[in-house]
Amino acid sequence: MNQAASIAAVLCLGALAAGCSRFDYGGGPAPAVSAPRQPVSEGGALQPLVVAPNQDPAGRYGSGPYASGGTLGPDGRPIGADGQPYYNPNGQPPQPGTDMASANPGDGAAPTQPAPPAGAPEIGRTELLGGWTIASGGNACKLFMTLTTWSGGYRANTQGCGGPPLGAISAWDLNGSQIILKDGDGTQLATLYKSGTERYDGRTGSGQPITVSR
């Protein structure tokens, strides 16, 4: 009887040990979840990441927009002073100190009108009267100039010129040694200077060469 009780006790202890081992397996602490590299707001949106000077998001040191520190947007690109991402048509962030206005010039800016050459002679109004041949951009037609007062100067008109700018000329005026051709609203279309006997050269508002001669 005692032997049977001893065997039963040993079997019971073995069963308890096996059960403890089973429950202890895998019972260690769960692996830590890595923290996000970029702050997250309450709404779940990624917040700008402040980068230490001379360090980019990958931890590299060097020059470029990371040289003096700054702020990165959710896409990892540097944010400009206006809060907008830098834009560069070559796909690279601009170097520090880059003037963003000059890096992305406006497409619609009018070109600067050329100044008359040094020593260009003064022009008298009466020497411009009558008919002329005007040519620009492969288009040539007739230009007539009078001394009738008109919007922005004196009356002018063209014949056979088609569309603008030549076909839109309605007035002309003088500014020292330059002739200014204008449309019906007084908008400047071209400027010319005297380049020879009965010949005037200059540029249209779009930068095309223009000639008036006879």
Architecture overview:
With 214 residues, this protein is an alpha+beta fold. Among the domains are: 51 residues, no CATH class; 89 residues, Lipocalin (Beta Barrel). Helices cover 13% and strands 29% of the residues. The chain is built from two helices and ten strands, in the order αββαββββββββ. The strands form two sheets. The protein has an eight-stranded antiparallel β-barrel. Strands 1-2 form a two-stranded antiparallel sheet. A hairpin with a 4-residue loop joins strand 9 and strand 10.
List keywords for this structure.
214 residues; alpha+beta; Lipocalin; eight-stranded antiparallel barrel; two-stranded antiparallel sheet; 2 helices; 13% helix; 29% strand; Inh/Omp19
List the helices and strands and how they pair.
Blueprint: H1 2-24, E1 49-51, E2 70-72, H2 100-103, E3 130-136, E4 139-150, E5 153-159, E6 171-175, E7 178-182, E8 188-196, E9 199-204, E10 209-213
Antiparallel strand pairs: 1-2, 3-4, 3-10, 4-5, 5-6, 6-7, 7-8, 8-9, 9-10
